[in-house]
Design brief:
Blueprint (H helix, E strand, L loop, with lengths): L15 E3 L2 E3 L6 E2 L25 E3 L3 E2 L6 E2 L4 E2 L3 E2 L6 E5 L3 E5 L4 E3 L1
Antiparallel strand pairs: 1-2, 2-3, 4-7, 4-11, 5-6, 8-9, 9-10
Pfam families: YjdM (PF03831), Zn_Ribbon_YjdM (PF08274)
Protein name: Alkylphosphonate utilization protein
Family: Belongs to the YjdM family.
Length: 110
Amino acid sequence: MSELPNCPKCSCDYTWQDGIMVVCPDCNHEWDPTVVEEDDDVTRDANGNVLQSGDTVIVIKDLKLKGSSTVIKGGTKVKNIRLVDGDHDIDCKIDGIGAMGLKSEFVKKA
């Protein structure tokens, strides 16, 4: 009998096979052990496209700025982004507003 892998989500070692899928009884995570997972440190936009520093992105919805009455309108183009680690994974400058951090889930690649 082959050794089943530990759960990639919770590291539980009591996994079991269900057809081609492996199932974790603790967190109910299912995965195909033959499929190689992509790197977690890849930053993706709202559509799943990979973002890189220097890309141009478009804001997909109106975003209120915390502590201000200013709003970044959906459709605003942001040029020359820089990817950083943290909650807000994009550093950028927006014309008329200035330097700020954005979350990649609120932009799409232009």
